[in-house]
Amino acid sequence: MNRRTLIKTLGLGSLGALISKSRGAIIEKNIRPLVISTWHNQGVAANTAAWSILSTGGSSLDAVELGVQQSENDIYNCCVGLGANPDREGIVTLDASIMDHKGRCGAVAFVEGVKSPIALARRVMEKTPHVMLAGSGAQQFAKEQGFEILPNKLSDHAQKTYNNWLIKSEYKPVINIEQSNKPIAAPPVKLDNGEFNHDTIGMVAIDAEGNLSGACTTSGMAFKMRGRIGDSPIIGAGLYVDNKVGAATSSGNGEEVIRTCGSFLVVEFMRQGFSPNEACKKAVQRLLEITPTDPKTVQIGFIAINKAGEHGGFSLNPGFDYTATSNEENHQKHVLNSLLK
Ligand code: SD4
Fold this sequence. Notes:
Blueprint: H1 3-10, H2 12-15, E1 20-22, E2 25-27, E3 34-38, H3 43-54, H4 60-72, E4 94-99, E5 105-111, H5 117-127, E6 132-134, H6 135-144, H7 156-168, E7 201-206, E8 212-218, E9 239-242, E10 246-252, H8 254-260, H9 262-271, H10 276-290, E11 300-306, E12 311-315, E13 321-326, E14 332-335, E15 337-338
Helix pairs in contact: 3-4, 4-5, 8-10, 9-10
The chain binds N-hydroxy-L-asparagine.
């Protein structure tokens, strides 16, 4: 009996107790609540906040919003929120998306002066007939919704990093800027080169009711061209949730993720019965097949959970990790396997 027949025969596709096939063995779990987020350094603070909601019976939607806001509020974060690195004109522009178990989604892209783009993305989802607002329109909507609009003023560390960048003005994304050999306590944490050690945060969660949600928020690639939008606010690229199957999110070079509809692809592989780990690996393999970029020069990581509370992830190059929190795991760090070594 093949996977699909098995799932069909057992009627599990619609019941939600997904079974995934891993290394020949059928695994069935039912772990909930559960939250995972990209990277361990910022993931602990984010998961702690999300867990405060999930562990008391709250919804995965509230959990992921509060979770990723920890990174948005962290003024030392190089890659999330208004303290992050700017574009090449010296302006911080933010991207974010959120999606819930009902298939509702909202996103903002290329937005300036908004402290919590994820909260704004949620407003787009809940208060408008649209999915995505960008640029000045997103900012206008933020004002209408009572969000404070802050002037563009770089944080001290972003100003310093930007000044350094201006010397050569070379756009050269650095892979694994997040990787550090230092033990991670609380932010801010510096890398050996003196730069702050954080990244885009993507988070997916399942609550006690079994409902899935996800959120992703970022300042995008540092020193990007003005107007550039990455994968993080694009539903299906940086984030995707299907309440019958699972949820996935990504971090890394967004252009590569957009090209592959990465998070959607991960969820579709889980729908076919692959475990979160295998689904992420297959999405990275697809990416490698079609990318016109030298794969050694870019980094991409996907992380995912399925309806049964299994989680996993896979990256293109080594050095990527994520944080898992459930009744079984206390902000556990998981290092991703990678396709290239
Ligand atoms: C982007 N995926 O804008 C984001 C950035 C990121 O590590 O994840 N950086 O492409």
